[in-house]
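## retry 2 of 3
previous attempt timed out at serialization; input unchanged, resubmitting
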Amino acid sequence: MAIHENIKKEIPDAMRAKDAVKLQTLRSLVTAMTNEVVAKKRKPDEFLTDEEALAVLKRAANQRKDSIQQFEAAGRTELAVPEKAELAIIETYLPAQMSREEVTAAVQAKAAELGASTKADANKVIGALMRDLKGKADGTLVKEVVESVLS
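## retry succeeded, writing output
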């Protein structure tokens, strides 16, 4: 079953469980996905492909992370709590992210494959890795690891 369809079908379960946070999060995700369908000039009752749905989920997760960061920087931790709850729910639909050690191993392998050894080669390695790891690793983490390995 497609991710979009799966999320839509979980709404009644959240209603029955009286889980307000999950219900609100699922509804906002379905709305974002419907908006994406319409933006792609398709009918609103169609479903996104898994790749398109993952892009919407990543965007939603990044929005929550940014909000959490800004609320905590402003000293408003009470506003960050619901955002963290929503982020936890969204992350259950995203593929598992690679650990720093796994990313380091991938960076070293890709750098060896491309013959990269200096900082000037960093962008080439980052670009190739992001294509290979598509959605499996955080871009910021990949950049940090590449810079530390090629320094």
